[in-house]
Amino acid sequence: MRGRTSFDLIEKMGLVALVDNRISITDMGRRFLDGEIEIGDVMLSYLLKFQYPNPLMKGFKGYNTIPFVNALRLIRYVNEKCTSRNIKSKGISKLEFGIFVLSIVDFAEVESIAERLLAFREQYESLKTDKEKSDFADDYISDYLADFNNPQENIHEYTDNIIRCLRLTKYIYIRGGGYYIDLEPRRMQEINAILCDLSGEAHYYSVESYQAYIGDYYGYMLPFETVESLQKIAEDIVSETKDLRKALRKSAVSVSLATDVKTLKKQIADLRIERLSLQNETLKYTYEADGKIEEAENALKNIMKLGMKPSIALEKWANIALNIIDDARLIKPNSPLGDDNEPTFTAPANVPDIECFYDTFSAICEVTMLTGRDQWFNEGQPVMRHLREFEDAHNDSPNYCLFIAPRLHDDTINTFWFAVKYEYKGKRQKIIPITITQLVELLDVFNFAKSKGIRISHSEMMSFYNACTNIEEVENSTEWRSHIANQFTAFRQKFL
Question: Is this model's pTM higher than 0.90 or not?
Answer without folding.
Answer: no
